[in-house]
């Protein structure tokens, strides 16, 4: 039972605006989650404003959740633990944490102890100094394997930068600082967390997105959740990003342009065959070009009708899209112990 002084202190704390929410998705990190919380508390001990830590347990099958709950009720920490009903993936877990966050600024980082929480206060200062909406960490001295991690990451960063127009050295670094008012306008889907700067560039100018060199540590416990197969998924996701960035609100233009292009080629082929048949008097019944022209015509009609259907679906999406891409089982924030 709380004393009068404790109740008054809680009321004063509640009246102070929450400045920063730190979101950390974790999945099967039972050995890392305890040291992670301790390091975050040590790094944020001198932070001058109110902050909170949000751990999102993404359906862990080990003791990650139990070890995280040991920190609920600590005097030096405002902690929320969001337990998802099953494993939805890092992107959905990050979205769940962002939706739960109440701070004016939101920071995200990995839960494997490779990101250094000591970089967070400096990143907040840099974000405000440069008047940015998103500050991305750059793991300049990355402590990962060259063949399986660094080289695929370099290739992916180059492709993403060339495709999206947002020039950054390290798209894959989870250590980022956002203005909550901006990142809450972006809905993360699929495995698109590595493309967050590109999605943010869809709601703010790319000039308000920056990067800062951060510390990176070698993994201490467990195994990486990523392998060489991630490179191929990045390429597929990149194609989706290209489509959504350019045609999300007007998919009919994409399919319609393909349909009109195929229709123009079909028209040229069929007009040529028409002249060859009825003016030149040649037989065209067995010529492959006739089949090519007909297939192109049918493909053109199919693309145009697909574009019309895509426009209808897009309008339905914008009108009705409000469902999250995750399911929360329970939130632990210490209130159950009050």
What report would you give on this structure?
- With about 350 residues, this protein is α/β, with parallel strands linked by helices.
- Helices cover about 45% and strands about 15% of the residues.
- It contains 11 helices and 8 strands.
- Strands 7-5-6-4-1-2-3-8 form an 8-stranded mixed beta sheet, with helices on both faces.
- Helix 3 links the parallel strand 2 and strand 3.
- Helix 6 runs parallel beside helix 9 and helix 10 runs antiparallel to helix 11.
- The longest helix has about 35 residues.
Compact overview of the structure:
The chain is α/β, with parallel strands linked by helices and 338 residues long. It is built from 11 helices and 8 strands.
Keywords:
338 residues, alpha/beta, eight-stranded mixed β-sheet, 11 helices, 14% strand, elongated
């Amino acid at each position: 039972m709380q004393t009068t002084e404790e109740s008054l202190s809680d009321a004063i704390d509640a009246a102070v605006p929450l400045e920063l929410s730190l979101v950390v998705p974790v999945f099967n990190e039972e050995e890392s989650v305890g040291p992670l919380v301790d390091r975050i508390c040590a790094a944020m001990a001198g932070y001058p404003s109110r902050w909170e830590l949000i751990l999102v347990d993404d359906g862990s099958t080990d003791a990650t959740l139990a070890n995280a709950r040991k920190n609920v009720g600590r005097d030096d920490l405002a902690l929320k633990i969001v337990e998802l009903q099953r494993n939805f993936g890092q992107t959905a877990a990050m979205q769940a944490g962002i939706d739960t966050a109440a701070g004016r600024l939101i920071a995200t980082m990995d839960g494997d102890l490779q990101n250094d929480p000591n970089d967070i206060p400096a990143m907040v200062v840099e974000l405000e100094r440069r008047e940015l909406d998103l500050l991305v960490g750059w793991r300049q001295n990355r402590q990962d394997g060259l063949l399986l991690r660094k080289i695929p990451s370099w290739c992916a960063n180059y492709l993403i930068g060339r495709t999206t127009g947002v020039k950054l050295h390290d798209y894959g670094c989870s250590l980022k600082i956002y203005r909550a008012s901006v990142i809450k306008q972006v809905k993360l889907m699929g495995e698109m967390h590595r493309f967050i700067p590109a999605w943010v560039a869809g709601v703010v100018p790319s000039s308000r997105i920056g990067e800062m060199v951060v510390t990176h540590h070698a993994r201490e416990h467990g195994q990486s959740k990523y392998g060489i197969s991630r490179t191929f998924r990045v390429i597929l996701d990149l194609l989706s990003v290209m489509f959504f960035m350019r045609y999300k609100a007007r998919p009919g233009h994409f399919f319609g342009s393909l349909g009109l292009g195929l229709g123009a080629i079909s028209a040229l082929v069929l007009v040529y065959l028409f002249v060859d048949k009825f003016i030149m008097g040649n037989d065209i019944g067995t010529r492959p070009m006739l089949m090519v022209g007909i297939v192109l015509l049918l493909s053109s009609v199919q693309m145009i009708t697909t574009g019309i259907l895509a426009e209808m679906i897009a309008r339905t999406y914008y009108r009705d899209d409000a469902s999250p891409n995750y399911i929360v089982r329970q939130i632990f924030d210490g209130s159950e112990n009050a």
